[in-house]
Specification:
Structural class: mainly beta
Strand order of the largest sheet: 8-5-10
Helix content: under 10%
Number of strands: 12
């Protein structure tokens, strides 16, 4: 109780910068990307998340349009909390769709619990951190699209 089970602080999954080849590069890096189609009938790509515990994850109905400008090298946008407003807590056992530029945060749990957390990152990965994510054995990482980084992303 009193601690979050994932990364604390408001953040997005797309990092603002990425250290490649010994120096930081600023550009749009995808971690699932995500788009709502023009007629609002479908979503494409993105991230699906769910948690079994109420009040364990907060999401904002917003998209950071320029992650390289707004976020730090780990996708941190805590400095924008006051601009984002209240956000909303994910309901337990309900799947939510986000883009990789949707602000969200893990919240401290109110009591000790067994939490099941689900996150599925779809296509469009600029970088892959095997230390932090479980690979799908049925999918081969395309090195012409995705750079595998064996170091910690933090």
């Amino acid at each position: 109780a009193g601690q979050s089970q994932r990364r604390r602080g408001v953040h997005i999954e797309s990092p603002g910068t990425l250290k490649l080849g010994g120096h930081r590069q600023e550009q749009r890096y995808n971690w699932g990307c995500g788009a709502i189609l023009f007629d609002n009938t479908r979503v494409q790509d993105g991230i699906y998340m769910a948690s079994s515990i109420p009040n364990s994850c907060r999401v904002w109905n917003a998209i950071i349009k320029d992650p390289a400008l707004a976020a730090d090298g780990h996708g941190g946008v805590e400095h924008m909390r006051d601009l984002l407003g209240e956000g909303f807590c994910m309901e337990p056992s309900r799947i939510y769709w986000l883009t990789d530029a949707t602000p969200h945060e893990s919240l401290p749990l109110q009591e000790d619990s067994y939490r099941q957390f689900f996150r599925l990152v779809t296509s469009s990965l600029s970088v892959w951190y095997p230390e932090h994510s479980t690979a799908n054995e049925l999918v081969n990482v395309d090195s012409s699209i995705t750079t595998t980084i064996v170091d910690s992303k933090f």
